[in-house]
Design a protein that fits this description.
Structural class: alpha+beta
Largest sheet: 5 strands, antiparallel
CATH superfamily of the largest domain: DD-peptidase/beta-lactamase superfamily
Number of helices: 20
Strand content: 15-25%
CATH class of the largest domain: Alpha Beta
Number of domains: 5
Radius of gyration: 49 Å
Number of strands: 30
């Protein structure tokens, strides 16, 4: 065994050079074979394009990544010597598309390098990367962008320096120069721009500069003042003691603006309100008392004045903080006087004056505009009103005047109950439908048959002088006129036949709409006619109460049936005291 080993060892020593040569040659052959079979669709090892390593990447993947980087990198546009970009559009916004396919496809690992052993390790030094991608441009998109951002004048407004809050301190927001530029020059510069990857790329557009009014230096001076004065917080005096408002809160309440070339600051009361109330309201607020006022017939009869209180005055407190910053004046938490709440209690006499006062107070404390009229036809004969002579569009209450004029013609024999009016209905049916159902077709047909001038004159003849069916506008009347018509109807002062009067009154008692005066008065028979049109709600009634018969008319604009019913109830309650 030892003999064979010695023999092999002697042979190796005599042929080691040949063995080494064959070994190295075989290794190099394997390397060259590996280089030949290296995929042609992959970039060479250690390839770097525009600062990005693409070692052994597939070309399609490298193309996609580079295209994404180029087409998603903004293009900083600087005007003249500006230190801040005016705009930073993406390439697509100016009609530019960047494609790296050609340059990447050209990065081939050639055969003549592949036959050189180890070239796979250094081929990237030899393979030259084309300097730039292909830039494809759309002139229409570029023109649209320039038109949108610069318009035809190419007049760029300078931006004054301002201030903002960052990391708990006031810092300068730099100014930006403005000026005028040449649209053709802008178009030329942008149409020739070739964005490159890297943070230092910028496009400079020549401009005739306009300097901002508020400079960075001036803004820095105000920032220094605020930061130094506010410091870590401002001490304020509250109830004789000192308390610190943290700097972050004080600075957060500040707004900045420029006026007449000067940068100024103000405190925003809305932002400060919550913080100041949360911190100080409970320490300074004192509740006010109550002033009690007794009103009799809508006239003050007595008054017990409550104590005044006080509450945090946010505006004055912020003014105090500003005075401290500007002038060094000690800051205080300010308060304001709070007047006592006033509670009114109302009472009324049951005479004309008291009833009128009740109507006035009700109208002034409820929604809408009111006209009210009351006439007692027996008993004390009280008469009360509020806005009784105010003119309203009648809505369907005009049908009472149409009914009256129609009955006059029945009594004179000019009309017969069997006369045909409209839609196959005779006068008897139409009269009933007009009052009970508030039928409009019958009312209009009867009105036109009588005539607008005639019916107006007949209303005036019985004293309803504010009622008019004449003119281009709506038919007008007042609560006083409607009350007068119903009072004379009930008292037999108009129409010669009780039968005629009963025909109208009985139809009113059967009126379908009962949400107004009838709903507010219980235990009484009510004969009424309502009117409603848009925001107008009216009710004209004869009330047959157990004690006295009276007329009540309520005309409203912007109120409700519930309010009308409630007013009727209060009038009835006071009247029966």
């Amino acid at each position: 065994m030892d003999h064979r080993l010695r023999k092999l060892n002697a042979r190796f020593r005599s042929h080691w050079r040949q063995i080494l040569l064959f070994g190295v040659s075989g290794l190099l052959i394997l390397v060259v074979i590996g280089q030949f079979i290296y995929p042609s669709d992959r970039l060479a090892l250690f390839t770097v394009v525009d600062g990005t390593s693409f070692s052994s990447w597939q070309k399609n993947d490298a193309i996609k990544l580079l295209n994404d980087k180029y087409n998603n990198q903004t293009i900083p546009l600087y005007f003249g010597e500006a230190t801040q970009p005016y705009k930073k559009p993406l390439p697509a916004e100016i009609g530019l598309t960047i494609n790296n396919k050609t340059r990447i496809d050209s990065l081939n690992y050639p055969w003549y390098l592949r036959i050189i052993p180890t070239s796979i390790l250094w081929a990237h030094f030899v393979i030259k990367v084309p300097s730039e991608p292909i830039y494809q441009r759309n002139s229409d998109k570029l023109s649209a962008y320039i038109s949108k951002e610069l318009d035809a004048s190419c007049n760029i407004k300078p931006q004054d320096a301002s201030l903002g809050l960052s990391d708990g301190t006031v810092k300068v927001i730099p100014s930006r120069i403005g000026g005028t530029c040449d649209i053709d020059q802008v178009s030329k510069v942008l149409s020739e721009t070739k964005p490159q990857l890297g943070g230092k790329y910028r496009v400079v557009i020549p401009i005739k500069a306009t300097t901002p009014v508020v400079s960075d230096v001036a803004a820095q001076q105000l920032a220094d003042l605020l930061n130094n004065k506010v410091g870590t917080g401002i001490a304020v005096v509250v109830n004789g003691s000192s308390q610190i408002i943290p700097a972050i809160q004080v600075l957060d309440w500040i707004d900045f603006s420029s006026s007449d070339g000067k940068l100024t600051y103000t405190f925003n009361a809305d932002r400060a309100l919550v913080d100041l109330n949360q911190e100080f309201a409970s320490k300074v607020n004192i509740g006010a008392g109550t002033t009690k006022v007794s009103m009799y017939n809508f006239t003050e009869a007595s008054r017990v004045t409550g104590a005044s209180g006080k509450k945090l005055d946010v505006s004055a407190t912020l003014n105090s903080l500003k005075s401290f910053i500007d002038n060094g004046t000690p800051a205080t938490v300010a308060t304001m006087i709070v007047s006592p709440a006033v509670i009114y209690s109302y009472s009324y006499s049951s005479d004309d004056e008291g009833l009128s006062a009740l109507m006035q107070n009700y109208a002034q404390t409820h929604s809408g505009v009111y006209g009210v009229s009351l006439i007692e036809l027996s008993g004390q004969g009280r008469v009360a009103s509020y806005n009784g002579n105010k003119s309203f569009t009648t809505a369907s209450t005009y049908k009472l005047f149409v009914a009256y004029s129609s009955l006059m013609r029945i009594e004179s024999g000019a009309w017969q109950w069997s006369d045909q009016i409209i839609d196959g209905r005779d006068l008897s049916a139409c009269f009933d439908d007009m009052i009970v159902k508030s039928d409009n077709k019958c009312a209009v047909a009867m009105l036109n048959k009588i005539g607008h001038t005639e019916i107006t004159n007949e209303a005036h003849a019985i004293g309803c002088n504010s009622t008019s069916f004449i003119g281009s506008g709506d038919i007008k009347t007042t609560a006083a006129d409607l009350a007068l018509l119903l009072a004379k109807l009930q008292n037999g002062q108009i129409l010669t036949s009780q039968s005629s009067r009963d025909t109208l009154i009985n139809a009113m008692k059967r009126n379908n709409y009962r949400d107004g005066i009838p709903a507010g008065i219980s235990g009484s028979v009510v004969a009424d006619k309502v009117g409603f049109l848009d925001d107008l709600l009216h009710d004209a009634a004869i009330v047959y109460s157990p004690t006295v018969t009276y007329v009540l008319v309520v005309m409203t604009d912007g109120s409700s049936w519930g309010n009308i019913a409630n007013l009727a109830r209060q009038i009835e309650n006071l009247r029966t005291q």
